[in-house]
Amino acid sequence: MAVVMYVRADPDASLALMAGFLAFALLFAGLAVLIYRPYFPGPAGGSSAVQASAGHAEQ
Q: Which pLDDT tens digit goes with each residue over 26-35?
């Protein structure tokens, strides 16, 4: 929103407002990833690093 305000020469827009909106958006996105990541597990087979270490343990 702040980018559009700045591009369209809104009198209330400023670089500081745009930077603030960007910082808030990045912070919110990062928190969302941290909170919701456990609800979305990876592939069914797991990562290749886990499979490789499991293979060494069986030998």
A: 999 999 999 9
| CB-CB contact of 46 with 27 (8 Å) | no
Overall domain count for the chain: 1
Q: What is the amino acid identity at position 49?
A: A
Claim: this prediction has a pTM higher than 0.85:
no
* Terminal Cα distance for the chain, rounded: 58
| Distance between CA atoms of residues 11 and 26, nearest Å | 25
Domain interval for residue 10? 2-58
Give the H or E element holding residue 30.
helix 15-36
* Cα 14 to the center of its chain, rounded Å: 25
